[in-house]
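Lab notebook, bench 4. Still working through the backlog of constructs that have no structural model yet. Next entry is a single chain of 131 residues. Request: give me the structure tokens for it.
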Amino acid sequence: VQLQAFGGGLVQPGGSLSLSCAVSGPPWQYYAIGWFRQAPGKEREGVSCISLRDDKTGYADSVKGRFTISRDNAKRTAYLQMNSLKPEDTAVYYCATSRVPEVCSYYTGKSQYTEEWYEDWGQGTQVTVSS
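Model written out:
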């Protein structure tokens, strides 16, 4: 499975961006897609995930109500709509796929973003929120 994330850029606080993650490879090889981010000097953290089995979604507390994850099966693409962006959202954003069936359906909270459960990763896309 190969992934490519794109859509990052510079946006003012309060603005919006939409990230895309194009996934190539047989869809039955993975059960969930996750978005992660890494800010300068910080560890990578999970942002959101979506289950391909039942469309359940998960969000980090820091982005709930502002970010929305979705997917388009036909295009094999996952999206992360980011609204009301804050300077602290500045980071490199990554997408990844998981072969753990219940990662985004059964597990909750930070468990959904256990990096060892995400086998394939895309290159990052930079999001900068600044005035």
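Notes after review: Residues 90 and 128 are 5 Å apart (CA to CA). The mean pLDDT is 94. Flag for follow-up if needed.
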